[in-house]
Amino acid sequence: MGKKTVERGLFELFERDAEMADELVFGRRTGADRRGFLKGAGLASMGAMLGASIPFHRNMPSGFIPVALADVAKVEGKDGLQLVNDKPLNAETPPHLLDDAITPTARHFIRNNGNPPENTDPANWTITIDGEVEKPLKLSIADLKKDFDVVEQAMVIECAGNGRSFFDPPVSGGQWTYGAVGCSKWTGVRLADVLKAAGVKKSAIYTGHEGADTHLSGDEKKKTLSRGLPIEKAMDPNTLIAFEQNGGALHIDNGAPVRLVASGYPGSCSQKWLTRVWVRDKVHDGAKMTGSSYRVPNRPVEPGEKVEDKDYVIIGEMPVKSLITSPMTRSSPSSREIDVRGHAWSGAHEVVEVAVSYDFGQTWQKAELDKPVNPFAWQNWRTKITLPQAGYYEIWARATNDQGVSQPHMIVWNPKGYLNNAMHRVAVTVS
Ligand SMILES: Nc1nc2c(c(=O)[nH]1)N[C@H]1C(S)=C(S)[C@@H](COP(=O)(O)O)O[C@H]1N2
Ligand SMILES: [Mo]
To answer: Where are the beta strands (DSSP E) in 347-423?
Structure first.
């Protein structure tokens, strides 16, 4: 951690966290068209809209939009998502709207790096499988359905940058709070079955994925994002080529008509608008595979410290995490007996315990925890707490996985703001 951060101590970090969460839910909601203006707005105009000066404005990355001025994203087929960025479209789901066991399509977050393709007619779509294979394939969606086992499973997709807005000092990139995560039901075929049909050569060690989205600049030669998977993860029977979301079509911004779902890895590995799986004999080097993209230093670093390229590692499995979806933060439940519930997940591992605290971590109460409905689904949990007297409380949740690994109190700072799995905290007042 940076010196400054350590000196400020635990509670100051926490305070910022709680404030940002509160503003996310209760912040002023302005018209979507103000957003473009906001991105270019000077300090004085932002201050005027907030009704206050911004003492720490020097810590705000360029293009940063104060969460108190965030908008509800007006996207057809989506419900209540908060806009994180408009170009490319990034929108997250406030925790209390993620209460369902399975995330409805309308509430699945959106993380686009470019513009979705214009023509997404499933009848004309093809996916090419080539590279280190015996027999390259070109498959339509009808071919996928006809030639391979069709399976359906609930799986978590979480952006590696979820929680980035809580980094201190701040880092550039989408200022996600809690809601760049969802667990929809995905129907499709196993990527492994398709790769086996193509005949994976011994030389294969990685996949490289391509999608039909276009670069924001309009330059057709530029790729938005092309990530890949270690061959073992690509061959995992739970890695799917999915053509249905919750029993219907995929939402256009979730990759219609067809996408990869490689749950347990950063969301970026789940290529949307999938057109090609290129099997490679080296680690894929497509757009956002190198540099500091989806990579973290192999050791804790000071903010601002220079990290050599060889000291970066590609993010693999995502960490253990949980979310409190009820009560909603900064609410005032009518009783001191409160039903607390949410979800927990941990890469490829099972969560074995979720505990809840309402006394700032002094004591913990175990929640009732469901088994995952299938591998890579999040696990629902619930418990009832009885707050001892009137006043302000924070409800904290902490998940522990089957390796004995729990969520931390604090973020391990890294240059791009990835992998924040600090405990979720929700504020309530009771009388
Ligand atoms: N083709 C393509 N696939 C993509 C992306 C993208 O910009 N283009 N974004 C990735 C990232 S960074 C994430 S976190 C997930 C988000 O999936 P969602 O938008 O369906 O929630 O999609 C991934 N797949
Ligand atoms: Mo992401």
So the answer is: 351-357, 365-366, 368-369, 379-386, 391-401
